[in-house]
Amino acid sequence: xxxxxxxxxxxxxxxxxxxxxxxxxxxxxxxxxxxxxxxxxxxxxxxxxxxxxxxxxxxxxxxxxxxxxxxxxxxxxxxxxxxxxxxxxxxxxxxxxxxxxxxxxxxxxxxxxxxxxxxxxxxxxxxxxxxxxxxxxxxxxxxxxxxxxxxxxxxxxxxxxxxxxxxxxxxxxxxxxxxxxxxxxxxxxxxxxxxxxxxxxxxxxxxxxxxxxxxxxxxxxxxxxxxxxxxxxxxxxxxxxxxxxxxxxxxxxxxxxxxxxxxxxxxxxxxxxxxxxxxxxxxxxxxxxxxxxxxxxxxxxxxxxxxxxxxxxxxxxxxxxxxxxxxxxxxxxxxxxxxxxxxxxxxxxxxxxxxxxxxxxxxx
Length: 364
Prior knowledge:
Blueprint: E1 8-12, E2 18-19, H1 29-45, E3 49-53, E4 66-67, H2 73-76, E5 77-80, E6 83-86, H3 95-105, E7 111-114, E8 118-119, E9 122-123, E10 131-133, E11 138-142, H4 149-158, E12 164-168, H5 176-179, E13 180-184, E14 187-191, H6 194-206, E15 212-216, E16 224-227, E17 230-234, E18 251-255, H7 258-263, E19 272-274, H8 282-300, E20 313-317, E21 325-328, E22 332-339, E23 349-352, E24 356-361
Parallel strand pairs: 1-3, 2-4, 6-7, 11-12, 14-15, 17-18, 22-24
Antiparallel strand pairs: 1-19, 5-6, 8-9, 10-11, 13-14, 16-17, 20-21, 21-24, 22-23
GO molecular function: amino acid binding; dimethylargininase activity
Keywords: Hydrolase
InterPro entries: DDAH-like
């Protein structure tokens, strides 16, 4: 069994207000933030360094709340074995946000590609929630109003080393990973709905490899996240099928993600896992940059109250002057601006969890 490894996880910081796209499901922002914090902390305990993209500034005229889907970074980019593909959802994402993601991933992957607007003269639509990577091949759900055949063609061209299999869906309201999820590279979790069972039949018929299955009675509990020999799953539902994996060599970590699920299901869409060591040598250059910039930041990052309970680590940076850089400490947290030439950061805010330096100039 291949281990599903990750060195980093990418998140989008939750703003103080979001517009629910389902008027019947009101989102409690405070609980949403707490659950995102718990997800980040759980991944950190699993050995994953956390990168959090800051809230985008709005103009004085723009008073509309961001849609809940705006924090689903897993819909905006797909990262597989050192290659990143910026997607193209039907609802065009914020251009500045996509630029942030691309800049950050250039420090963690060896190639960043972008889904074009058109393929063979037809509009491209590709959403990360419709893409399921098993570790050996890629399934992509094709559904009305979301990922289309043209998007799947771009996916196949980008990840040439893996078979890409299209699964046509009847459910236009939920992405593929709502119905199917990877427990590990040989076991698929699947729901009991007609749609889920139909998708599984096609997987078993068209896949290049054989998979075992775990059938989950509560469709909301299908989504799970395997990282570094840990399986994160929903403990806030009545279905506890994942407990049958006790003693299988994988740690089971149940989580309450009720509010995260209201913003978007499955909860794995709230983050993007990255294995920086899969970058075919890029990681060695990245680690060298990390050591160099970390040393400079330690001596120049002047905080109102310096973190005292951990070493500062640079999580990601492009070598180009002026690119975004994220920094994480083992405890205290800050966000602000900094340079490596002796200047101090501005607008520093302390908190718990992830440290963000939104702009660090790397002088060469």
